[in-house]
Amino acid sequence: MELFFIILGMALVTFIPRLLPVLIMDRLTLSPWVKKWLKTIPYAALGALIFPGILSIEAGVPFIGLAGGIVAGGIAFFKLHIIYVVFGSIFTVMLMKFFLL
């Protein structure tokens, strides 16, 4: 029974912070500038999360990760499906690790 209350508590702790912004933002009217600025935040957060991982794929050899990131950016530039972006970057990193290390 104690495990049930622990799981229930964890569910509430994660649900409430996700629910509050939805309830608050539904009642606010934002200026067009603020809406445009808020739409760019996910891209900035994604870049901040991904870039350190790109540099740390292989310790001491950051250009392997950079090459995979550049290939992923190039494939994404042409608006191909996300699976091609992921597999293209993985394939590039695998090839570089195989031939360079």
Task: Describe this structure as you would to a colleague.
The protein has four helices and no strands. It has 101 residues and is an all-alpha fold. The chain has one domain (2-100). The protein is flat and about 55 Å long.
Which blocks of ≥5 consecutive residues have pLDDT under 50? Answer: none
Give the beta-strand count. Answer: 0
Beta-strand fraction estimate = under 5%
Rg, please? Answer: 20 Å
Order of helices and strands: HHHH
- Tell me about the biggest sheet? none
The chain-level mean pLDDT equals 90
Report the span from N to C terminus. Answer: 53 Å
Helix content: over 70%
Structural class: mainly alpha
Number of domains: 1
What oligomeric assembly is this protein in?
single chain
Task: Put the structure in a nutshell.
The chain has 101 residues and is mostly helical.
Core attributes:
4 helices; mainly alpha; flat; 101 residues; single chain
SSE arrangement:
Layout: H1 2-27, H2 32-55, H3 62-77, H4 82-100
